[in-house]
Fold:
Amino acid sequence: MPYNLLKGKKGIIFGALDDKSIAWRTALRCHEEGAQLVLSNAPVALRMGEINKLAEAVQAPVIGADVTSMEDLKKLFEESMTHFGGGVDFILHSIGMSLNVRKGKHYTELDYAWNQKTLDISAMSLHRVLRTAWELDAINEWGSVVALTYIAAQRVFPDYNEMADAKSLLEAVARNFGYHYAKKKKVRVNTVSQSPTRTTAGSGVKGFDGFISYAEKMSPLGNATGDECAAYLATLFSDLTRMVTMQNLFHDGGFSFTGVTQEVVEQMEK
Structure:
């Protein structure tokens, strides 16, 4: 049920790939809550054509941007500000890519050239997005930026591989840039650590099906869905959370603070 949380607000959503992705679900929810949107993804993702369906549903333009290119990001923000007639109020960073994971490289055998791309695209892209917005004064006062992360930044999940390192770096960027943006313009920057979710990207991680079942048993409330994450993100983009910044916020049904559950004990005793 919509609550009009984002009425009059304008936002950019990065990373909507298909209708399974959290960015896609978030765009739908933000539109429901009254927001105007711009959608962005890498040129290679745009060629898949799926995002055009979302653009039609939420009445938003699609502006391609390679997040490793400052020139592309500058163009994205300038065109977005022209479209909106001013600055933006919120940004969702839902971007991640690992060639090492895709190619089945074990963590102990990383290809370092690929690793550099992983860190650049999955983590330092947040720094570039924030820096571009900073230099163009593109985010309105009391704006909100959220990047999606995962608990592998704090704990070892062997098959999550180098993406764990990337998420650790992503969270550090959010904290550090979050400090400066709060001081400059009261813009808040947070990360949300979501339950394992059956997205196209997430499903590519080795052992994903087994792990999502384990996480369901380990979470007192169960795994959070993509739509539930989208609803949570809408609150973080709203004026209800103005004093929340530089945080890593767990949205995982209690998984992050549960040592063991009865379901897991019973499964181990079988």
User: Anything to note?
Assistant: The first strand starts at residue 10 and ends at 14.
